């Protein structure tokens, strides 16, 4: 199996305009899993969309907490079918996590992560933090101390107070970062239909996320930017498109080309993971840096090789995909590691 790890092009302050620069590494395919298909299977659906079965060999084998199993499951449309139960340790093998927040106004972009606004993505360096009042045309942004140091959540308690839905007022005007070493990594179980079932009507996400990268890290719905900004906090992503959540751990809000990719032989954009409905998620740009122009409202389309599939949004869009076009497993909320402590309103916390 050949796959590519594409690196994010270094940014100046402004739009991330291209993924053209890349580096390639080749790995050997993992041995076939007993009883599981080793080649994609294509079948027709009543909606006349072709679908391609999930290939479990694409997941990084070293991250699996136990062998992938097939089991009976019921989908959101009532269909009883077969699903893969994938229990995997969500620790990226391809990259380090962080950094997120610079600690001084003189810090360069190597000390911070990324932030997004209006479809553009920005380096969170010290100058960016110092300029937030102008950036948002709001004088109440005051993350910088008189000595030039930046107010950053430096303890687990501070992070959890700032990262909750009702931000602790003591942590307004903070750059919010959680550190992986504060939390014990717990394996997560994903149940994904072996063969996706296309639905004519898209459905919105719930709190269980959008999908999963091949390293086991989940793709999350859009970050709740309004809630973050209303408290004059910033919760940057790292250059890999991820950050921490006190309950869900490390997760991605953007696809930046830093995770395992499955190269395509026909110059199509590489595959980066699976949505929870079983449809593949592919990078936005193909090797010629061209993006598809015929995506539907869920950010998907179909072709003869891959069937129906999604393309991730730009890193600045704050979305991997826009909605599900397939049926998902009913019991996702009951899976170990998938639920979190309720927020202040009694509902489960939104991912951040």
UniProtKB/TrEMBL annotation:
Location of the YHYH domain: 189-284
Pfam family, one: YHYH
Signal peptide: 1-22
Region (Disordered): 331-352
Domain of life: Bacteria
Matches recorded under PROSITE patterns: PROKAR_LIPOPROTEIN
Keyword annotations of the record: Signal
Protein name: YHYH protein
């Amino acid at each position: 199996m050949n796959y590519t790890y594409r690196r994010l092009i270094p940014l100046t302050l402004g739009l991330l305009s291209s993924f053209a620069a890349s580096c390639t590494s080749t790995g050997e395919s993992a041995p076939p899993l007993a009883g599981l298909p080793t080649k994609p299977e294509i079948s027709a659906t009543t909606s006349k969309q072709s679908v391609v079965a999930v290939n479990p060999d694409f997941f990084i084998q070293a991250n699996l907490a136990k062998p992938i199993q097939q089991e009976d499951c019921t989908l959101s449309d009532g269909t009883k079918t077969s699903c893969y139960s994938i229990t995997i340790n969500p620790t990226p093998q391809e990259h380090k996590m962080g950094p997120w927040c610079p600690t001084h106004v003189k810090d360069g972009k190597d000390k911070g992560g990324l932030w997004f606004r209006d479809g553009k993505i920005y380096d969170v360096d010290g100058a960016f933090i110092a300029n937030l009042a102008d950036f948002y045309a709001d004088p109440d942004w005051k993350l910088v101390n008189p000595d030039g140091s930046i107010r950053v959540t430096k303890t687990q308690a501070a992070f959890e107070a700032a990262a909750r839905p009702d931000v602790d007022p003591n942590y307004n005007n903070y750059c919010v970062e959680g550190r992986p070493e504060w939390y014990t990594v717990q394996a997560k179980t994903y149940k994904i239909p072996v063969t996706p079932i296309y639905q004519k009507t898209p459905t919105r996400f719930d709190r269980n996320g959008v999908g999963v990268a091949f390293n086991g890290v989940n793709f999350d719905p859009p970050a709740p930017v309004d809630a973050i900004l209303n408290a004059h906090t910033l919760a940057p992503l790292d250059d890999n498109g991820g950050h921490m959540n006190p309950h869900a751990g490390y997760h991605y809000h953007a696809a930046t080309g830093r995770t395992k990719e499955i190269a395509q032989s026909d110059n199509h954009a590489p595959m980066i993971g699976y949505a929870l409905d079983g449809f593949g998620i592919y990078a936005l740009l193909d090797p010629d840096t061209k993006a598809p122009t015929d995506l539907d409202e869920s950010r998907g389309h179909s072709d003869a090789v891959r069937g129906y599939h999604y393309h991730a949004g730009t890193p600045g869009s704050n979305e991997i995909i826009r909605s599900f076009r397939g049926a998902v497993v009913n019991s996702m909320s009951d899976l170990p590691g998938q639920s979190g402590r309720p927020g202040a309103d009694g509902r489960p916390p939104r991912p951040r």
